[in-house]
Amino acid sequence: MEENIVSSAANALDYKGFPADNSKTGGWIPAALILGIEFCERLSTMGIAVNLVTYLIGTMHLPSATSANIVTDFMGTSFLLCLLGGFLADSYLGRYRTIAIFAFVQALGTSMLAISTKLPQLRPPLCHAESPILCKQATGSQMAILYASLYLIAVGTGGVKSSVSGFGTDQFDENNEKDKAKMNLFFGRFFFFVSLGTLMAVTVLVYIQDELSRSLGYGICAVSMFIAILIFLAGTRKYRYKKCAGSPVVHILQVSVAAVRKRDVQIPTNEDLLYETAPEDLRIRHTDQFRFLDKAAVIKKEDHATSNIMSPNPWRISSVTKVEEVKMIIRLLPIWATTIIFWTTYAQMITFSVEQASTMERNIGNFKIPAGSLTVFFVSAILITLAVYDRLIIPLWKKWKGIPGFTNLQRIGIGLFLSTLGMAVAALAEKKRLSIAMKFSPNTPTLPLSVFLLIPQFILVGSGEAFIYTGQLDFFITQSPKGMKTMSTGIFLTTIAFGFFLSSLLVSIVKKVTTYGGKKGWVGDSINNGRLDCFYGLLAILSFLDFLIYLVCASWYKSNAAEKNFQTEIVANKGSSTQDKC
């Protein structure tokens, strides 16, 4: 019996529902199968997203601004649906079933996209070189098939991405020191596979789409997803599973509803009179911020289901610990809000920047670089920045400051600043491109200007992502309550979603405002006829203002965190003093 206890993973089950045996379940082999799903998900999603704008403009004959918005709405929905995937995984399906079901949905959507790009009746006729103005746009039914394919992929991506990292860490026992070390390695390898999948997408897949066949490229994405699903299912007997613990969203709603119901109740001056049920070692000490929520912990007679059994109604009363967990989430929101603009600038790298590249000279000898493959410099900047930070900055910072690298808030700030520079450089590069375009016809397919002019903006924003992605992930996971780690990851991913949606909104507003009175506008049917440099300049200004606001929010958060730590130290000192007296 004792031997079984020692070999069982904490709070984990095998596929039959029995306590998971460390010697037979979990570890690197099941984790590698899970990484395979994430690799194929990135390969599929990014292989579609980075080159979709050229298909919408060149094949479906849609205006430039409309095409950019379709891409950003698709990507935004993909990340926003991570919240739905996380809710289903936590409350009903579990992570294993969520990954399996939604990976199949993504594979189905990718297959539909491959078919829709292959069949000629699902796209408009080719334009005549003599009269490109008479190009026919895609019909409503043709766009409906395209939208159905894209949003099936978005649903699948949301479900897979919300659960795959969590299910990977489930394969390691957090109470085992060796497994803890492996878990830290897993996060690094997870991000590596994400970047590797993106790198393969923007090089190999984009080349296949542009030079061989777009439907073949999408077909490869679909086949890879189906193969990944089969490999993932093959590990069913080897995985470790965690029980559904219920959704933190319900927890937050319960605290909010209880506080609203007791809005007229007075909060006692003695915090010990507030309701608390958590064990002493798991309690979160009461804080004075957001006092209105404390009303949820005020005890009243009607808070219990019956007069005989003391079973509190969670929609009428919440413990202090649960209230404080909700307060912790609220404290994250200013940082959450000020990081959205970064992902708006990121959206330009896979929309307008790719369209810019398609109008420029892209030859290296006899080889012509596909426009979508320019994002390889973006991905390379991420990988190089991470390597330099890990191997150079962290050791130097540890020697100088005594801490291993920048804090999560500092990394986020660096990312925001680099993206601001990136947009400023992008505006200057576009001004140069437009000055060349003005000397030629708007329909000139290739301008005599090297595409490498765009590399600095890719490098700056890519380096910014390396800092902000790792900083955000670290911040939201470490600063959120222990029981809300999955939801905190979802909150982080929604910053990406809202960044893409904000990009679509900005493009629509700018187009409407700048085309007023019959003007051509900044973003219109063709970037050669617009002023994309002004749009990039606007983003640079908004990014700089956002950076200043972020500094204020980060300072506010640190001051509150310091106050909370000070209160914790006082409580600990009181406890130790009491022990000394005893």
The count of helical stretches stands at 16
Domains counted in the coordinates: how many? Answer: 3
Helix content: 55-70%
Cα distance spanning the termini: 39 Å
CATH class of the largest domain reads Mainly Alpha
- Class by SSE composition: mainly alpha
CATH architecture verdict of the largest domain: Up-down Bundle
Largest sheet, if any?
2 strands, antiparallel
- Element order, helices and strands? HEEHHHHHHHHHHEEEHHEHHH
Number-wise, the strands total 6
Q: Mean pLDDT score, rounded?
A: 82
If you consult CATH, what is the topology of the largest domain?
Growth Hormone, Chain: A
Radius of gyration (Å): 26 Å
Assembly form of the protein: single chain
How would you describe the overall organization of this protein?
With 582 residues, this protein is mainly alpha-helical. It has three domains: 7-125 and 137-246, Growth Hormone, Chain: A (Up-down Bundle); 248-318, no CATH class; 326-562, Up-down Bundle (Growth Hormone, Chain: A), CATH 1.20.1250. The protein has 16 helices and six strands. The chain has helices at residues 2-7, 28-58, 64-80, 82-118, 140-169, 177-212, 214-234, 248-261, 320-338, 340-349, 352-358, 376-401, 408-437, 455-478, 485-514, 532-581; strands at residues 8-13, 19-21, 360-361, 363-364, 367-368, 447-450. The strands form three sheets. It has a two-stranded antiparallel ribbon with strand order 1-2. A two-stranded parallel sheet has the order 3-6. The two termini are 39 Å apart. The model is unreliable at 1-6, 305-309 and 566-582 (pLDDT under 50). This is Protein NRT1/PTR FAMILY 6.2. It comes from Abeliophyllum distichum. It is a multi-pass membrane protein. Pfam families: PTR2. The chain crosses the membrane at residues 28-58, 70-89, 95-115, 190-209, 215-234, 328-349, 369-389, 409-429, 449-469, 490-510, 535-557.
